[in-house]
Amino acid sequence: MKTHHINTPFIVTKDISNGNGFLLAHILYDKIKSIAAYPVKEFYLQDIPEIGDFKFKMYKNAFVNDKLTIQAQLVKQNKEGYVVNITVTKEKAKANHQERICSALFDFPAEKKYSTNRTAC
DSSP class of residue 104? Predict the structure, then answer.
């Protein structure tokens, strides 16, 4: 079984920032949405289905040259599907801890089981 906790580095560049150097929120959302699928890949035989529901909250801005860490963790698994928690942090200057930039929860539906009504000839 693969790990259900992923840490991915992400650097804010000028290309994904506005004129003031702030990271564009939709860019960050797209990135964490793709990373949210990593902890649940092994549960699907085909492509991972579209996210059923999500919550996304920004706490702080990130700026050009900030080094972020995107953490994805499978936090719930049941017959209806899977829930992945995302936390984005950056190292706080002059301190020995991480500052939370945003968090999100993504719901992935369980893979549908297809049945056939074929009868033998």
Answer: E
